[in-house]
Amino acid sequence: MTRQNFSDSEFQDFLNANDNPPRELSQSIFNVVHRDLNPSPIKVFIKVLFVHIVMGGLSIFGCPQFGITPSGNMAIMKFLERFGNTACAVGCGAFFVLGTIIVIGIALRPEELKALRRAEFLQLSALLILSIGFFYAMASSVVLSWVVPWLIGSLGMGVLGIELLFHLRNRGVARAL
Fold first, then answer.
1. Burial of 114 (C-beta count, 10 Å sphere; 0-12/13-18/19+)
2. Would you tell me how many other CB atoms lie within 10 Å of the CB of residue 1?
3. pLDDT tens digits for 45-63?
């Protein structure tokens, strides 16, 4: 990099110049920056939903959800059943959301994570209600005595995971995230 020598008069001319960019350009730049820093909650939800479809689908290979498992792998469920049916439901719900939380920690920009955090309970609730609707549509055994603890586990893991991601990112601990 070379340093150019400017005369005092050239520098003064620069300081005194009143060359402002066109108002339309300034407004356009402002709008882009504002949109990037304040993402739409709907767009964030759609991203999270897409991640959840993939990760939720993969999670049923490791832990059946409401009787649905394409692999027949019951290892996590058998481990959790030692602690009772309620603990199993809570653990299965937490496991179901865990993969989604990990991937959104990688996939979402910091601004999107902030937008998700502002409405985390609403967005997680909508995501989980859609998931339960899917399980019900697949003719699985969706019963209230299992759904309530499952929702507690999945909402708990979702809220804790989002809060943890947010705080790790703000502290610079998870720069890779």
1. middle
2. 2
3. 999 999 999 998 888 877 7
Burial (CB count <10 Å: 0-12, 13-18, 19+), residue 169: middle
- What's the rounded Cα separation, in Å, for the pair 52 and 38? 22
| The token pair that represents 131 in the structure block | 């998931």
| 2 pLDDT higher than 70 | no
Report the C-alpha gap between 139 and 149 in whole angstroms.
Answer: 20
- Give the start-to-end residue ranges of the domains of the chain: 40-170
Q: Specify the pTM.
A: 0.72
In 3-state terms, what secondary structure has residue 143? coil
Q: Report d(CA 5, CA 154) in Å as an integer.
A: 63
| Four-CA torsion 78, 81, 82, 88, nearest 10 degrees | 120
b (16+ CB within 10 A) / e for 34-58: eeeeebeeeebbebbbebbeebbee
Instruction: Give the burial class of 122: count Cβ atoms within 10 A of its Cβ; 0-12 exposed, 13-18 middle, 19 or more buried.
Output: exposed
Query: Residue 177's pLDDT is what?
Result: 46
